[in-house]
């Protein structure tokens, strides 16, 4: 039974047809503190119809209402406050959690519809940036959340493995590079060549001419060009994979920009057939004035294609391959215009499914309030961050629990989990400052705090020893447990909201609230005392652990049982 509906039905019976059940549901509020009730109905809503002061109406309603199914119903000023029956509610929720286990909160909103999620997508021959980290962890969490409501997410790493920069890289390598150097330290060396290219090209425009020629060769399938490109790509990918392993993120596809090289002629032909291409200074563009957007540059003078051309081919490929119900792009907000153009061009081509494509933007990670950038030298190397976070976690664990078995693995779960959690607890559009010591704290709104709360729940269960926690007979009337129980009941709603808003922070904030409520309960109650509610309390503790573990799992964070 849906409890809000129960309240609405009790009211509908006594409002003389002045409000429908839906109207009442829309008006029902949730009081700030559960001391004011679990639901509240504002009697203002009936003031016109009943021609009375809301305070009077509230009193009358309380007198008429069938109170049997509630713990109590009270008029407070112009509000009718409903207090749910704690015993029945706790039994109901705990049973749902324990009988469903990790499937608690699942639903069938998605009907197995395919949802490709374009995520991470770093650029070959460059270090993976904090922006790519955000895309990776946000995309991964959205995939988990969508899967939970029965969509079929497809995680695509649209690698930046094509484009004029490869012409530059090959030129630079041929001039200054060596195989041994690259083998020893691929990403840094390749970046170094690339940076040197840009510096020297400022003085020597010949270099740009040569780079364009090399990219053209690459697009035309020249053997040497392809060989170098393949090698650079493989070296970069293995460096990226190391980071993905640390983060525990897997992909369903690594089809990057290069994959669409032989699929772009078709796009250009389609655009031509639809009379959408216009020549502008030798280049081919699509005019997007009616969308209030700058023209999309599709093909350069020398015939070379662009980022957006490859994205057009990719969007069409994804529609054909997956017949998606939604197609998501988890990419920084600085590319908002690109995705507007992409959708507009597809729409102009007559593809109404472009309405199902959504750019999921996110804000910047800053340091000392300043934007990170390769050029300014303000870079954070992801691998270092994850290692430092793990070291910091290890130190704290050693202080708290020197005999912990598996300490290495737990430190990784906590350190890496802290970095992921910190990223996801912020609404994705917010910029945030990265301070490692803040991220790995065991108190406050952090991943380790949630993990620690779960480990504490697990340790209570271990201490209880040989008991059988059951799904039934868990009528807990203890007011101290009430906030925790209600939060457990909110979980299915939380997941749906997070999915609808593509907002993992909804789940992360929920996990913090649940941890807080549980820690307060634990501090004020003797859970293991031998009385007739002991098993019900343990069932609640177990339920908390199930839901915290699952919340963390939706965020892509592990939940150690002991720490
Ligand atoms: N490689 C690009 C970058 O690092 C991101 C690609 C995003 N995905 C896409 N389909 N455009 O900026």
Q: What does the model show?
A:
It is a single chain. It is globular, with a radius of gyration of 29 Å. The strands form four sheets. A four-stranded parallel sheet has the order 5-4-9-10, with helices on both faces. A three-stranded antiparallel sheet has the order 1-3-2. Strands 6-7-8 form a three-stranded antiparallel sheet. Helix 6 (about 130-150) packs across helix 19 and helix 7 packs across helix 10 (about 205-220). The longest helix is centred in the middle third of the chain and has 25 residues, at about 225-245. With about 575 residues, it is an alpha/beta fold. The model has no long low-confidence stretch (mean pLDDT about 95). The protein contains 21 helices and 13 strands. Among the domains are: about 5-85, Gyrase A, domain 2, CATH 3.30.1360; about 380-555, Isoleucyl-tRNA Synthetase, Domain 1 (Orthogonal Bundle), CATH 1.10.730. Helix content is about 55%, strand content about 10%. The protein has helices at about 5-10, 20-25, 45-50, 55-65, 85-100, 130-150, 165-175, 180-185, 185-205, 205-220, 225-245, 265-275, 305-320, 335-350, 380-400, 405-425, 435-440, 445-465, 480-500, 505-525, 535-555; strands at about 40, 70-75, 80-85, 115-120, 150-155, 275-280, 285, 295-300, 325-330, 355-360, 365, 370, 430-435. Arginine binds near residues 311, 329 and 331. GO terms for molecular function: arginine-tRNA ligase activity; ATP binding. One of its GO terms (cellular component) is cytoplasm. Monomer.
